[in-house]
Amino acid sequence: MPSPRLLHRERLLALVNIETFEQVLQALPPPLDALLADSPSIIEVQRRMGRYVAREARGILRRSPSAVARALAYLILREMDLFLLFSLIQGRLLELSTEVVEVALEITEPSCPWSGAA
C-alpha cells in the first residue's frame, strides 16, 4: 500500500507542481510508477490503485504476524465491499441501466466516450 515512505509530504508537493498527467505518472516512486504506467485516464488510475490496495490488503491479512496490521487490512477490505454494495444500491435506486451499474462495480469495462479522457 502507498505509505508515507512512498508518498511523503515533500513528494506530494512536488507531484502537485508537475504540469501534465503523464509526467505525474512518470514521477511516481516504485512500485506505483510501473503499476500506473500508460494509464490513459484518472479513472484508470483509480481502478488500478483500488485493485492494488485490495491485493496488498489481502496479502497482509494472510501473512502479517501483526494483529493490528491484519485488523486494518480486514477493515480496508470490508470498506471496499461496502462501497461496492452502496454503488449497487444507489444505481438501482436511481434506476441506472445495468451497464452503468456494472461499470461502477468493475464487472465490465466502460464503453462510453469519457472512459479514455485524461
Describe the structure.
- The chain is mainly α.
- The chain has a domain at 39-116.
- The protein has helices spanning 9-16, 21-27, 32-36, 42-63, 67-93, 98-104.
- The mean pLDDT is 86.
What would you say about this model in short?
The protein has 118 residues and is mainly alpha-helical.
Task: Give the key terms.
118 residues, mainly alpha, 6 helices, 64% helix, 0% strand, flat
Write the layout of secondary structure elements.
Blueprint (H helix, E strand, L loop, with lengths): L8 H8 L4 H7 L4 H5 L5 H22 L3 H27 L4 H7 L14
Helix pairs in contact: 4-5, 5-6
Distance between the ends: 24 Å
Shape: flat
Order of helices and strands: HHHHHH
Bin the strand percentage: under 5%
User: How much is the radius of gyration in Å?
Assistant: 17 Å
Largest beta-sheet characterization: none
Calculate the mean pLDDT score and round it.
86
* Total DSSP E strands: 0
List unreliable stretches of 5+ residues.
Answer: none
Percent of residues in helices comes to 55-70%
> Number of DSSP helices?
6
The class by helix and strand makeup works out as: mainly alpha
